[in-house]
Specification:
The structure is a homodimer of 194-residue chains.
Chain A: E1 3-5, E2 10-15, E3 20-25, E4 32-38, H1 48-55, E5 65-67, E6 73-80, H2 94-99, H3 109-118, E7 132-134, E8 137-140, E9 147-150, E10 158-164, E11 168-173, E12 188-193
Antiparallel strand pairs in A: 1-12, 2-11, 3-10, 3-12, 4-7, 4-11, 5-6, 6-10, 8-9
Chain lengths: 194, 194
Amino acid sequence: MSEVIPPRSGRAFRLGKGARLKVIDPQGEQVADLFAAFAGDTAEVMSSGRTFDYLEKIYLSVGDTIYSNRSQPLLTILEDTVGRHDFLLTPCSADTFRIIYGDRDPHRGCLGNLVEALAPYGIGANAIPACFNIFMNVELDGVTGKIAVKPPLSKASGFIVFRAEQDLIIGLTACSAPQSNNYSFKPIEFEILP
Amino acid sequence: MSEVIPPRSGRAFRLGKGARLKVIDPQGEQVADLFAAFAGDTAEVMSSGRTFDYLEKIYLSVGDTIYSNRSQPLLTILEDTVGRHDFLLTPCSADTFRIIYGDRDPHRGCLGNLVEALAPYGIGANAIPACFNIFMNVELDGVTGKIAVKPPLSKASGFIVFRAEQDLIIGLTACSAPQSNNYSFKPIEFEILP
């Protein structure tokens, strides 16, 4: 009963409190940007800064909780066969492709895909912060602070499972940035489990 | 002509395009949370995620530019006698003190101080993301991703100077979190230079 998100596109859906969301990388080395907002008030969204502060770390895996900008738990990771995800960077966008890749007619990126998918829920671009970038592999030098986007560590059928700690609106993409996915755009699969 | 921000409080002010903002730590080991929004549309605010992406690093110093959520340059660092600041964490808040320090009657923190100071400009709590935490010293293990808040590296009279790349609304605090300031609350000084 899983759904496939085609390459370089996105989806949005409700995830009830207590339900589980499984996100699968069917072919391997593909990133999925995950956005989450509290359904009761969509101005309450995921916050990397709050989460880093409370967890005292920037890499999340099993047992870790993503907090909102109002310090409520939104999602907890229950299973994770990959173990490396990014929570530092914002979704790729037309600006990303213009500035980083020099594209003159840039793709709208994950940001554009999220904005379109989240519009029916009244969530606009300004509300979309750094997302939880599932399977994204950002190497970091703790001394210099330099970051490098590397191919994801996910193999075919790698997955991660979250539990919703609140009633949520979720946005999810099959990422559009060449570097993030080792220069090959692939689909992402997801499944909502009761 | 500098102004002093008393311990555990905050200020907001306009900074015209091209003007310089000097932030001084008069006694040493004190943090100042800096918020910036584009005055022309205050929904456009500083973005740590965009900045990390474009600079390919998480530590900023001389020559580095802070970008907005719409990928515009907002502020560039011109001088910096300290060299270590944080852009990972959100401003301390009543929730921070409740969750991290276990306070039962928590201080409103930098977030509360920024919300009050920015209210006349129509900027509310939901618009305040991870700030640029001047002089805040967050050590990071690049392998495990663990972070540790350490005493600032700033000595008495240490300072940083920014140039405004747009007409801006600035929020600035003398930080309220014990750990960030080596457990001693001190003032912050600032000066606007033409």
